[in-house]
UniProtKB/TrEMBL annotation:
Record's subcellular location: Cell membrane
Protein name according to UniProt: MBOAT family protein
Molecular function in Gene Ontology: acyltransferase activity
Family: Belongs to the membrane-bound acyltransferase family.
GO biological process, one term: alginic acid biosynthetic process
């Protein structure tokens, strides 16, 4: 059930109509949340419910077992991690592994034949072709963080399975985040909290702005990016590809952050607070800052549950770099079962390593105007790295990047011919929003001032009108595939 669908709007109206009546008592509230969330999730395919239930029961039982049998805590933690990572491996990466094994077998057979040995054709391992459950990567990470925190002694496990599944399966963030930690959400779910007028107004603004970013910006530019990457022959204009990658940068940002905003708004209307997941990443002055602003809930998850347990920055520079590269490569693979995603993670690891060794952002920042140059450099390099994320293959990524640096073939007229004014306009609007935040112009009108209180309803009304009148063709959220 997509947020940008009539089915979800009807679902949301029914859910929130009954919410004030059913939220007072814990068991009633948790039961209602679980039933509604399972209905929401099962709308795609009811069979997916078995997987999230199985994954949740493993972690729910493992956490209780750690308290009851403390000497077996490590074994129970391993059981939890194997159960969650195992489900990811089977549903998300099994065919990826099979394809690479088949390619390796084919390569060995070809090499043997080339050496003069009569090699029999190797039988390929058949693909399994399992459907990828929506949101699998998100809720498995969320569930794993629960058992890891219990193991570390940072959290006491809940004994009520309804309480646990209300946390794990809460529908606003279930399929595309943000990844909410149990230590943050379980205590909120334990107490009835009635949202006040200020919280409901914040919720409306988040929801409307999220829909605007998704329906007006991301969905408008999506078709131009799709046309560019699916064309029979890639465009040879350097300027065209810089524009396309700028469109894609804001497509994926507005698509994903739009979902996060809607999820946060829905939760706030219910009386719960989800963490911010995006904080204007394209005004970053370094790649370390970029990863502190982009998909924050995932970045901090990898920091706390992968990078630091590996040793973090302890153990010398070599060990620290190895930990960084391991974390970023796993992060790339988390995004998809393709080598292009691994390459995307590797490129960002290289950029972060280069920053650590040269400290170029700090050095550039000491030069007059250097901080602004750093922002432009980070943004430009980020556009290049997004090619690996969007391209269908290494060969396509290499061709696009090579064209982006063929400055002798700018061919600006191609951009005017192939890019719609509306797509350029909505992206320019989002770029101005980034500049507005970067320049600190929002401080000119304090959020609690009388002027701001008058302008906010007007802006919300304009965004709603834009969502109705200027929306692009409805598209599924990009991160559903992860």
């Amino acid at each position: 059930m997509l947020f940008n669908s009539l089915e979800f709007i009807l679902f949301g109206l029914i859910f929130f109509a009954a919410w004030p009546l059913l939220r007072r008592r814990n068991n009633t509230r948790w039961t209602y949340l679980v039933i509604a969330s399972f209905f929401f999730y099962g709308w795609w395919d009811w069979r997916f419910l078995f997987l999230i239930t199985f994954s949740g029961l493993i972690d729910y039982g493992a956490a209780l077992g750690m308290v009851r049998w403390p000497k077996r805590r490590t074994l129970l933690l391993v059981l939890s991690i194997v159960g969650n990572v195992g489900s990811l491996a089977v549903f998300k990466y099994l065919d990826f592994v099979i394809r690479n094994i088949n390619a390796l077998i084919e390569g060995v057979s070809w090499a043997s034949g080339g050496a003069g040995v009569a090699a029999a054709p190797a039988a390929a391992i058949p693909l399994v072709n399992l459907a990828l459950p929506v949101g699998l990567s998100f809720y498995t990470f969320q569930s794993m963080s629960y058992t890891i925190d219990v193991y570390r002694g940072h959290l006491q496990p809940t004994r009520n399975p309804l309480h646990f599944f209300a946390y794990l399966a809460m529908f606003p963030q279930l399929v595309a985040g943000p990844i909410v930690r149990a230590a943050d959400l379980l205590p909120q779910l334990r107490h009835y909290k009635r949202s006040d007028e200020a919280a409901r107004w914040d919720a409306i603004r988040l929801i409307v702005y999220g829909y605007f970013k998704k329906a007006v910006v991301a969905d408008t530019v999506a078709r131009f990016v799709e046309q560019a990457f699916t064309a029979e022959q890639l465009n040879s204009s350097c300027a065209y590809w810089w524009v396309i990658m700028t469109l894609f940068a804001f497509q994926i940002y507005c698509d994903f952050s739009g979902y996060s905003d809607i999820a946060r708004g829905l939760a706030r209307w219910m009386g719960y607070d989800f963490p911010m997941n995006f904080n204007h990443p394209y005004i970053s002055r370094s790649f370390r800052e970029f990863w502190g602003r982009w998909h924050i809930s995932l970045s901090t998850w990898f920091r706390d549950y992968v990078y630091i347990p590996l040793g973090g920055s302890r153990g010398g520079r070599g060990r620290s770099e190895m930990n960084l590269w391991t974390t970023m490569l796993i992060s790339g693979l988390w995004h998809g079962a393709q080598w292009t995603f691994v390459a995307w993670g590797a490129v960002h690891a290289a950029l972060l390593s280069a920053e650590r060794m040269t400290k170029w952002p700090q050095r550039l920042g000491r030069i007059p105007g250097g901080k602004h140059v750093a922002v432009l450099m980070v943004f430009a390099i980020t556009l290049v790295t997004w090619v690996f994320f969007r391209a269908d293959s290494f060969s396509q990524a290499a061709a696009v990047i090579a064209t982006m640096f063929r400055f002798d073939r700018l061919e600006v007229h191609v951009v005017r011919e192939l890019i719609h004014v509306k797509a350029a306009g909505v992206v320019a609007l989002m770029m101005l929003r980034q500049v507005w935040v970067y320049a600190g112009l929002g401080n000119l009108v304090p959020a609690r001032s009388r002027v701001a209180k008058c302008l906010q309803p007007v802006m919300v009304a304009l965004l709603i009108a834009a969502c109705v009148l200027l929306r692009g063709p409805g598209e599924a959220f990009i991160y559903f595939q992860f």
